[in-house]
């Protein structure tokens, strides 16, 4: 998937101004979770923010490092680390954490979701913010139960200059909110021969009310449930579920010590 990632996401920039606005609202540095090849992190670094990007895939991080050098982004503004967000242990604290481009969906159980959110909370400054971008979960109830390939997009493979047709094949278990997704990349050679790459993924939808409870469980406070990257309110027909949360300045009120009377 790392091979095609930059080419297939090259035109997806709708969310970038929102992350910049949040970085200016909450301050830095910024923790980019599931950073991939650096789409969000490099954008924020270009605007002067220091970013730490983490991803579980070394292949993605390798391309992020190459892209940083190729695009001339000052290395002092970007750090790339291979890490699992559910067990993250960094010394640094952040003004903003970003979980972009549906990355939260790769956490396929509530226990892993809570573990991730608790780790994120522990790495935020008091009053620090968190942004989570998800598809509108209502769409899983509208999905057709006919297993068939759907053409998502076509693009040019940067390594060969040859066209790629990207398809998806998905089945949804609405009871568990789990989607089994296979990305199908058909690389079309000059002789008309097709090379097919398959990338199977298991992902989980999270409902808006469920997200509120997950955040509370992890010690985070919900700020906004938005329906798009323009911060419009979340509704049933919204294209996205864009969650803004923060770590409270005080995690709990001080409880007087009855023994000492303090």
Q: How many angstroms separate the termini?
A: 58 Å
The level-1 CATH class of the largest domain: Alpha Beta
The profile of the biggest β sheet is:
7 strands, mixed
Strand content: 25-35%
Number of domains: 2
Number of strands: 11
Global outline: globular
Notable traits:
7-stranded mixed β-sheet, alpha/beta, Rossmann fold, 24% helix
List the topology elements.
Elements: H1 2-9, H2 16-26, E1 30-33, H3 39-46, E2 51-55, H4 58-70, E3 78-82, E4 94-99, H5 110-122, E5 124-135, E6 150-156, E7 163-173, E8 178-188, E9 194-204, H6 208-217, E10 221-226, E11 240-246
Parallel strand pairs: 1-2, 1-4, 2-3, 4-5
Antiparallel strand pairs: 5-11, 6-7, 7-8, 8-9, 10-11
Task: Summarize the structure in short.
By secondary structure, the chain is an alpha/beta fold. It folds into two domains: 2-136 and 205-246, Vaccinia Virus protein VP39 (Rossmann fold); 139-204, N-terminal domain of TfIIb, CATH 2.20.25.
Descriptive overview:
The chain has a seven-stranded mixed β-sheet with strand order 3-2-1-4-5-11-10, with helices on both faces. Strands 6-7-8-9 form a four-stranded antiparallel β-sheet. It is built from six helices and eleven strands. Residues 252-262 have low confidence and may be disordered. The protein has two domains: 2-136 and 205-246, 3-Layer(aba) Sandwich (Rossmann fold), CATH 3.40.50.150; 139-204, N-terminal domain of TfIIb, CATH 2.20.25. The chain is globular and about 65 Å long. It has 262 residues and is of the alpha/beta class. Helix 5 links the parallel strand 4 (94-99) and strand 5 (124-135).
């Amino acid at each position: 998937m790392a091979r095609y990632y930059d080419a297939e996401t090259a035109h997806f920039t709708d969310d970038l101004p929102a992350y910049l606005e949040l970085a200016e609202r909450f301050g830095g540095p910024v923790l980019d979770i599931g950073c991939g090849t650096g789409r969000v992190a490099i954008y924020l670094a270009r605007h002067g923010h220091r970013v730490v990007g983490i991803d579980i895939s070394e292949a993605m991080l390798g391309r992020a490092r190459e892209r940083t050098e190729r695009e001339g982004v000052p290395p002092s503004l970007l750090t790339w680390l291979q890490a699992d967000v559910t067990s993250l242990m960094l010394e640094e604290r952040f003004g903003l954490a970003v979980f972009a481009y549906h990355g939260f969906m790769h956490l396929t159980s509530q226990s892993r979701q809570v573990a991730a959110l608790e780790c994120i909370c522990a790495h935020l400054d008091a009053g620090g913010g968190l942004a989570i971008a998800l598809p509108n979960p209502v769409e899983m109830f509208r999905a057709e139960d006919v297993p068939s390939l759907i053409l998502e997009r076509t693009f040019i493979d940067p390594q060969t200059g040859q066209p790629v047709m990207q398809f998806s094949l998905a089945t949804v278990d609405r009871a568990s909110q789990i989607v089994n997704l296979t990305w199908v990349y058909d690389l079309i050679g000059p002789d008309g021969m097709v090379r097919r790459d398959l990338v199977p993924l298991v992902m989980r939808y999270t409902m808006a009310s469920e997200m509120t409870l997950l955040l509370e469980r992890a010690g985070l406070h919900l700020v906004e449930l938005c329906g798009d990257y323009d911060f419009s309110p979340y509704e049933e027909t919204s294209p996205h579920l864009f969650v803004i949360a923060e770590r409270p300045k005080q995690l709990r009120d001080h409880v007087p010590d009855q023994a000492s009377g303090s």
